[in-house]
Design goal:
By secondary structure, the protein is of the alpha+beta class. Helix content is about 40%, strand content about 15%. The chain is built from eight helices and seven strands, in the order E-H-H-H-H-E-H-E-H-E-E-H-E-H-E. The chain has a seven-stranded mixed sheet with strand order 1-3-4-5-6-7-2. Strand 4 and strand 5 form a beta hairpin.
């Protein structure tokens, strides 16, 4: 797993944490639509994420922590936590507010990500002879490469794990793109939650994220993505109106 900066440090470190999460989200959205970000897109993603992170930080810092999330993190029994989670609806704004203000609960935040690709595609590289003579058609090797890349885009999985912890407790909120976009759960879009109340050491919980399809014991929290108020932006690397 890749550990990003926690938000318990300076303002710059907190914005950096939020920016990294936004960059991952932008990349995931592009890949979900079959677009592999190139260098120009990555630069565009970086600056857009930086600007958005600063704007969100200013807005979300004042949003605070949702009362129901405070109650969830204050639960002293697993049964109580399961009950609260079952009635809770979380928005993206609620999650960001929790990340930016978790120090108010005496907690530190860390973001972990893990990406799974289909077997045999981890080191996939374009062939040298991808373009046929004349530069207008793909070779058979080039066609195979794009077919494999299409398989990667549709089958890859990237899980995001938000850890909130101190010496006495830990809380995990985690999800992949399908959790928050595809209604494969009867309750609709959702995130997953587990904590120290499950009686499972933090280190053992992390092990369950190392294998594709494996999840630690958890409960679902309904997730609703509130639409942003700013005008819609074109995908990174594409001109407006294009």
């Amino acid at each position: 797993m890749i550990l990003s900066n926690g938000n318990s440090g300076t303002l710059e470190e907190r914005i950096s944490t939020l920016r990294d999460g936004l960059r991952d989200e932008m990349r995931m959205r592009l890949r979900y639509h079959g677009i592999q970000p190139n260098m120009d897109m990555e630069i565009d993603i970086f600056f857009r994420a930086e600007q958005k992170a600063k704007a969100i930080f200013d807005r979300m810092k004042n949003h605070g922590i949702k009362d129901e999330l405070k109650a969830l993190f204050s639960a002293t029994r697993k049964k109580e936590a399961v009950r609260i989670a079952g009635t809770l609806t979380m928005t993206q704004r609620d999650l960001v507010g929790l990340i930016l203000n978790c120090a108010d609960l005496g907690l530190r935040h860390h973001l972990f990500t893990k990406e799974f690709r289909p077997p045999g595609t981890e080191g996939l590289q374009p062939p040298v002879d991808m373009i046929a003579e004349g530069g207008k058609e793909l070779t058979e090797a080039g066609k195979r490469f794009f077919k494999q890349m299409g398989h990667v885009f549709t089958q890859r999985q990237q899980i995001h794990v938000h850890l909130f912890e101190n010496e006495a407790q830990h809380h995990f909120i985690f999800f992949d793109f399908a959790d928050t976009k595809d209604e494969h759960w009867v309750g609709g879009n959702h995130v997953h939650y587990s904590s120290h109340l499950w009686g499972i050491p933090k280190e053992d919980t992390f092990k369950d994220f190392e294998t594709r399809g494996e999840r630690p014991t958890n409960v679902h929290i309904k997730f609703v993505e509130v639409q942003a108020t700013e005008p819609p932006q074109p995908p990174p690397g594409r001109p407006a109106g294009g």
